[in-house]
Amino acid sequence: MSWLNSVRNALPFVSKRETPENLWHKCKGCGQMVFTKELEENAFVCPKCDHHDRIGPNERFRQLLDPGSTVIVAAAKVPEDPLKFRDTKRYADRLKAARADTAEPDALVNATGTIEGHRVVVGVQDFAFMGGSMGLAVGEAFVRGVETAIRERCPYVIFTASGGARMQEGIFSLMQMPRSTVAIQMLHDAGLPYIVVLTDPTSGGVMAAYAMLGDVQIAEPKATLAFTGRRVIESTIREKLPEDFQTSEYYLDHGLIDMVVHRHELRARLATVIGYLCGQDRGGHKRAA
C-alpha cells in the first residue's frame, strides 16, 4: 500500500459538498464571476464594471416602490393561443414553460404603489418571459395599467424590455401597437403623465410603439435600444455603424431620449420627475397654486 493510500485510509471520509448553482454569477458586461449575494445587494449592477443586469417585475417593484405600498394589478384574461400556432413546439407549451420559469402570467406585470410618497402605477416587462414579446396579454396589461392610472389619478411608468411583437400571435400581436397608442392618448386626455424607462434590450414592435411615446424618456446605462438589428441596417445602407450605435448613450447624444439614469439613482429621479409633472407634494396632494 502506498503512503497516499495510507493517509487516505487514516482520514475520515468527507462527502463532497454540493455548491449551489446560483452562488456565483458571470457578468455579461465584463465576464467576471461575481458573488450573487454581492450582486443582489448592489441592485443587480455589477460591482466590477457597472453593467446593469436584467431584472424582473418583482425585483423592480422591490427596488422602486416604497416598502409596503406595492399592490399587483390582476392580469386580464385573453385568448391564449388564437392562431393554434406551432413551430418546433406548440405555443401553448411555450407559454406553460415561460410561466413555470418566471412565475408570472405573461411578459408585462403592473403594480400600484408609491415612490417616495408619490402615487404611481408601474408596469414592468420581463425579458425572461419569451423575450418580453408583445402579444394580446401584454397589450391588455398595458391598457389595464393605463386605466388603473386614470382611475388612481396618477402617472403610468413603464419599464420596457422586449424583443418586439410575439410572432406566435401574428396580426393579433401587431394590433397591440395602435391599441397602446390609443391608451396613451387616453392618459394624456386625463392630464396624466406617461413616463418610459428603457431597459436592456428594447427593440422591434415595442420600440416602434409605446416605448418611444413617453412624455419623459429615461434609459438605464448601456441598454441596447433598437427597432431592427445592427447587421440588417449595415447591410441595407452598406456602411459601418458607430460602436455605440443603438445604445442609451447614443440615443441621448442624438436627442432621442431625455436622460440616462443609473439604477442606484432611478428611484429618486423618478420621484423628482413625478413631483414636477404632477405638481404634487409627497403623499399625492396637489400643491397650492
Description of the molecule:
The chain is α/β, with parallel strands linked by helices and about 290 residues long. The protein folds into two domains: about 15-55, no CATH class; about 55-280, Alpha-Beta Complex (2-enoyl-CoA Hydratase, Chain A, domain 1), CATH 3.90.226.10. It has helices at about 5-10, 35-40, 55-65, 90-100, 135-150, 170-175, 175-190, 205, 230-235, 250-255, 265-280, and strands spanning about 25, 35, 70, 110-115, 120-125, 155-160, 195-205, 215-220, 225, 260. The strands form two sheets. Strands 3, 4, 5, 6, 7, 8, 9 and 10 form an eight-stranded mixed β-sheet that branches. The protein has a two-stranded antiparallel ribbon with strand order 1-2. Helix 8 links the parallel strand 7 and strand 8. Helix 5 packs parallel to helix 7 (about 175-190). The longest helix is centred in the middle third of the chain and has 17 residues, at about 135-150.
Which CATH class of the largest domain applies here?
Alpha Beta
Output the radius of gyration: 22 Å
Classification by helices and strands = alpha/beta
First-last Cα distance: 93 Å
Mean pLDDT: 92
Per CATH, what is the topology of the largest domain?
2-enoyl-CoA Hydratase, Chain A, domain 1
Count of individual beta strands: 10
Fraction of residues in helix? 25-40%
The coarse silhouette is globular
CATH architecture of the largest domain: Alpha-Beta Complex
Number of helices: 11
Q: Name the helix and strand elements from N-terminus to C-terminus, one letter apiece.
A: HEEHHEHEEHEHHEHEEHHEH
Strand-residue fraction? 15-25%
**Major sheet summary line:** 8 strands, mixed
Query: What's the domain count?
Result: 2
CATH superfamily of the largest domain: 2-enoyl-CoA Hydratase, Chain A, domain 1
Low-confidence stretches: none
